[in-house]
Specification:
two-stranded antiparallel ribbon; alpha/beta; Rossmann fold; 11 helices; single chain; globular; seven-stranded parallel beta sheet
Length: about 400
C-alpha cells in the first residue's frame, strides 16, 4: 500500500503528477453520460488508444451506451515506487472496476500499439475470449512511432509547411498571451509526421484483423481527425499534422474498400471539435483558440465536452443502425457546431483583441486551465485533495 497526498506539478503543457481519485471521478461522470445510449447493439469493440480523450470516451460509450465488451490498447505508465501512474492508467483502472460492476468484459493491453507483437496479442485475446468484433476505434496520438518492419523511429513535429508562421499563443506556464514564431518543417519532418500520425498503423490493424477473420459482418471502423478554423490552419491543417490527417483520411477510403469486400463493413474519419486534451494542449495557438471558442459556444448554448461529442457521434452516425452523414470528402463532421459561420465570425472578431489583460473576460482561459488540470484528476468537484490516496491500482 502506498498512500500519499498528491498535488499537481505542472510545467507548461505537461502535468507530472496525476490523482487516482480525481481520474476515477472523471470516468464515472463520463460513464453516466454514456448511458444515454440504447444499452444494446454492440457485442465486441476494439479501441486502439483507449486511455484518454476520444478513445476513452469511445470505450465508455461502447460499453455503457451500447452494451459492448471491449478490448483496449494503450501505452500508460503504471504506479511504481510511491510515484503516481499516468492519468490514462488511472482512467482505465476505474473503467475496469465499473466494467466488473456492470458485468461487462474489459481487458487492457498496456504496450506499444504500433508493434507486431501487440497486434498478435490482441488477436489472440479476441480469438480466445471475445470473438469477432463489431467496431474498431482508432484513437492513437503519439509523438513517436517505431516502424515495426524496420525498427526505424519516426518523430512527429508541430510545424507549418513551406514558410514560417507568426501568431498569438498562450504561454501556459506564465499564462500570458505572446507572439510566437514557428519555423517551417523540413521535408524529412513532414514525412516522419505522416508516418507517426497518418493512416499507416490503422491500416495495419485492420489488415491484421481481416487476416485473422475477426471482423464481424458489417464491422465499422472510425479514426479521429481535426480541421479547425483559419486562425489555426498554418500550424495545424495546412501544417505537418494536417498533412498526416489528410493521409489518415485517404486511408479511410482504402479501408472502406477492404472492409466492404471482406465483411460488408466500412471505415470513416470523424472530424471532431477542438477540445482540451493532452494532445491539443501541446499545439501552439490552439489553447488560445479553445479559450475563445469555449466562451462563444457556451454563450450560444452548443458547447460540448469530449464525452458529449462521442455520444452524439455514436447516436447520429456510427452506432448500430445509423447511416453517417458525410461531407463532400467522405468525412463525418461532428465539428459542425464549432464551424457554424456565426460561431467562427465571433471568433474572428475576438481573436485580434486577445491579450494577457483580457484572457478571462474576452476569452475563457480559466475553463481551459481547469479542463487541462482535470485531465490529470485535479480540480474535480467532490474530491478531497488534502487526504492521502492509494496510488497503487490494477488494470484487472
Amino acid at each position: 500500500m502506498a498512500e500519499m497526498v498528491i498535488e499537481p506539478r505542472i510545467r507548461g503543457f505537461l502535468c507530472l503528477t496525476s490523482h487516482p481519485e480525481g481520474c476515477a471521478a472523471n470516468v464515472r461522470a463520463q460513464a453516466e453520460l454514456a448511458k444515454a445510449g440504447p444499452g444494446t447493439g454492440l457485442k465486441n469493440v476494439l479501441v486502439i488508444g483507449s486511455s484518454t480523450g476520444f478513445g476513452l470516451s469511445s470505450l465508455l460509450t461502447s460499453m455503457f451506451g451500447y452494451g459492448a465488451d471491449v478490448l483496449g490498447i494503450c501505452f500508460e505508465k503504471p504506479p511504481a515506487d510511491n510515484k503516481p501512474a499516468s492519468p490514462g492508467y488511472y482512467n482505465l483502472a476505474e473503467a475496469h472496476v465499473m466494467a466488473k460492476e456492470a458485468g461487462r468484459r474489459l481487458e487492457t493491453i498496456n504496450a506499444d500499439a504500433f508493434s507486431h507483437e501487440v497486434k498478435a496479442q490482441a488477436i489472440a485475446a479476441l480469438k480466445e475470449r471475445y470473438g469477432k468484433i463489431d467496431m474498431v476505434v482508432y484513437s492513437l496520438a503519439s509523438p513517436k512511432r517505431k516502424d515495426p518492419n524496420s525498427d526505424t523511429l519516426w518523430s512527429s513535429v508541430l510545424k507549418p509547411v513551406d514558410k514560417l508562421h507568426v501568431s498569438k499563443t498562450v504561454d501556459l506556464r506564465h499564462e500570458v498571451v505572446e507572439e510566437i514564431t514557428i519555423p517551417p518543417a523540413s521535408e524529412q519532418e513532414v514525412f516522419e509526421t505522416e508516418r507517426v500520425m497518418g493512416g499507416d498503423d490503422w491500416k495495419m490493424w485492420i489488415e491484421a484483423l481481416r487476416d485473422a477473420d475477426l471482423l464481424a459482418e458489417g464491422c465499422r471502423s472510425v479514426a479521429y481527425s481535426y480541421i479547425g478554423p483559419q486562425v489555426t490552419y498554418p500550424i495545424y491543417r495546412s501544417g505537418t499534422i494536417g498533412g498526416a490527417k489528410e493521409h489518415l483520411e485517404a486511408t479511410a477510403k482504402d479501408l472502406s474498400a477492404l472492409m466492404a469486400e471482406h465483411c460488408k463493413g466500412e471505415a470513416w474519419v470523424s472530424v471532431n471539435k477542438a477540445l482540451v486534451t493532452q494532445a491539443s494542449s501541446a499545439i501552439p495557438v490552439v489553447p488560445l483558440y479553445i479559450s475563445i471558442l469555449y466562451k462563444v459556444m457556451k454563450a450560444a448554448g452548443n458547447h460540448e465536452e469530449t464525452m458529449e461529442q462521442i455520444v452524439r457521434l455514436f447516436r447520429d452516425h456510427i452506432g448500430p443502425g445509423q447511416t453517417p452523414t458525410l461531407d463532400d470528402k467522405g468525412r463525418i463532421r461532428v465539428d459542425d457546431w464549432e464551424m457554424l459561420p456565426e460561431i467562427q465570425a465571433q471568433i474572428e472578431e475576438l481573436w485580434p483583441q486577445a491579450s494577457t489583460e483580457n484572457l478571462e473576460d474576452l476569452c475563457e482561459f480559466s475553463a481551459f486551465r481547469t479542463g487541462f488540470r482535470r485531465l490529470f484528476g485535479f480540480e474535480v468537484p467532490g474530491v478531497d485533495y488534502s487526504k492521502p490516496t492509494e496510488v497503487m491500482r490494477e488494470l484487472v
